[in-house]
């Protein structure tokens, strides 16, 4: 017997699948526990997964997540309604395959710590952000612009890609990325502007006029109340149970994602 919780988005098909899954788990004498589950079943897309990551920040490295696709395309999901029972069987039989996904650790507001699966953004779309960027306590540059974004390798396919960042394909190396958002550039001042690839030995410290700036961690927003933010590769990982029978490489997932987007654009679907 194991303890579980189900998190689903608000679409009718997802809620129906959640109810069906709860019946299956109850019939197998599994115990629902919304506070300290061992397994989190996520029904929906990547946004629903980010919600689960946010809800279980304090025990992220102690739980395993199973992402079940429901409707929309999910970059992290490789189970569906037909195969989710395989995940339950694999857990019971101790044959589940676990993929450890990288997390970024963000320290802000007097040592408050949060973890990001996709990206961290520090932004102000009204006033220019003025902050100094240090890498391992060594000054990199005096940044002036609308913001900065930091992404994991898996997160680099999302917002980071949309603003001209690099996609990190490597699975063998612990890499993450920094990119400037709308940096100031004129005849007297300019910044690096190019994406910066970092490894797990490097941390970034931002020190400057950050009070009241927005800190967005996987779509969840916080307001900075001091002038210091630290971002680094976390020692913690997200434990994702995946369907090894249908597992795709990152390259294959990218091909599927872009093919899906191209087809949507051709049809004019919304």
TrEMBL record:
Domain of life where this protein originates: Bacteria
UniProt keyword annotations, A-Z: Kinase, NAD, NADP, Transferase
InterPro entries: ATP-NAD_kinase_N (IPR017438), ATP-NAD_kinase_PpnK-typ_C (IPR017437), NAD/diacylglycerol_kinase_sf (IPR016064), NADK (IPR002504)
GO molecular function, one term: NAD binding
Gene Ontology biological process terms, A to Z: NAD+ metabolic process; NADP+ biosynthetic process
UniProt entry tagged with the keyword Ubl conjugation: no
Catalytic activity: NAD(+) + ATP = ADP + NADP(+) + H(+)
Pfam families referenced in this protein's UniProt entry, alphabetically: NAD_kinase (PF01513), NAD_kinase_C (PF20143)
Protein name: Inorganic polyphosphate/ATP-NAD kinase
Provenance organism: Spiroplasma syrphidicola EA-1
């Amino acid at each position: 017997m194991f303890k579980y919780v189900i998190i689903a988005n608000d679409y009718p098909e997802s809620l129906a699948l959640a109810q069906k899954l709860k019946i299956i788990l109850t019939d197998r004498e599994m115990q629902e526990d919304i506070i300290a589950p061992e397994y989190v079943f996520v029904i929906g897309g990547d946004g629903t997964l980010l919600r689960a990551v946010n809800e279980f920040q304090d025990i992220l490295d102690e739980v395993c997540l199973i992402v079940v696709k429901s409707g929309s395309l999910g970059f992290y999901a490789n189970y569906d309604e037909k195969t989710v029972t395989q995940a339950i069987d694999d857990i019971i039989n101790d044959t589940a395959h676990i993929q450890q996904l990288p997390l970024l650790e963000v320290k802000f507001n007097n040592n408050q710590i949060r973890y990001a699966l996709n990206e961290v953004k520090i932004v102000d779309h009204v006033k220019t952000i003025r902050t100094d960027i240090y890498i391992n306590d060594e000054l990199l540059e005096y940044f002036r612009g609308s913001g900065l974004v930091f992404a994991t390798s898996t997160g680099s396919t999302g917002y980071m890609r949309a603003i001209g960042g690099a996609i990190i394909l490597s699975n063998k190396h612990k890499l993450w990325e920094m990119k400037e958002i709308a940096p100031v550039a004129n005849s007297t001042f300019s910044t690096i502007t190019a994406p910066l690839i970092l490894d797990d030995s490097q941390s970034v410290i931002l020190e400057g006029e950050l009070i009241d700036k927005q800190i967005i961690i996987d779509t969840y927003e916080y307001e900075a109340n001091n002038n210091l933010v630290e971002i680094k590769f976390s020692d913690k990982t997200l434990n994702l149970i995946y369907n090894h029978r249908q597992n795709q490489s990152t390259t294959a997932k990218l091909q599927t994602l872009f093919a899906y987007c191209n087809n949507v654009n051709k049809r004019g679907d919304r």
